[in-house]
Specification:
eight-stranded mixed beta sheet; Immunoglobulin-like; alpha+beta; single chain
Amino acid sequence: MAKTLEFSDQPWKIVNMKKLTYAFALVAGLAYFSAAPSSALAGSLIQTLDTPEMSSSQFSSLFQPISAAPVLQSPFQFYGAPVSGDVWSQVFQGTGAAAGLYAYAYAVSVNNVSNNSGEPVHVDSLSWQFNGTPTVTNFAGSPAAAYIVNGPVGGINPSASSTGVQLQTPSSLSWAPGSAVGTIRADYVNPSTQTPPLGAGSNSATFVLITNQPYSQQFVNLQSSNPQIGSLTPVYAATGGQIYPVPVPEPATLLAWTGVIGAAALARRFRGRRTMI
């Protein structure tokens, strides 16, 4: 008849306890990542946002213009050059599958002018405060908090003033959660792929950020080889939201991970304590 031996004083017990400790540490870390205040994450993360494409008709079926927030066409000017272009922005409210969400649309047009050295103006990047963590959705077949929209978006239609140059999408769109505010940055230059800046006489494609926070206005900062001068350039931006990385693990997901890891650890412990001989 088989006998069951207890190995209560064997080294395996230490190993299993270490594994269990690591499992609980993992879960605790995930929970902290979800619940930690933004000050704990400040300066520690810059996330590149995926930007799948969406048609203007699909966008219009999900989001409607807000009458109190008409399109902004805000000019900018670089030192040594005449008025150098415009930043377009508009905010939309979700309907149907997008109910409860806001969509913030942006585009850049660069005038066909040169600075006092004869160099055509260009835009390397632009950044602005965005105080609402982008919300991950699935409107284009994959999880995304930002989209490139092909065609006009509300009052934004950069192709209307295009000089024939193909609309240029940002080489990267990023979100940086700070201690109190978040920052969106759209880069057009990419040295690794030899992608040039947004040049004179060209327009950008319209890109859209999704969040559940209502709107205010912030000033955008444009980067080029010449500094920006003149009046500040306002755009619509989210306001009042908590600042976290994108996406935030759902509490239910964390509980599921906790249950699976805990059950596996207990099963290993039970099997290890009972060995048949």
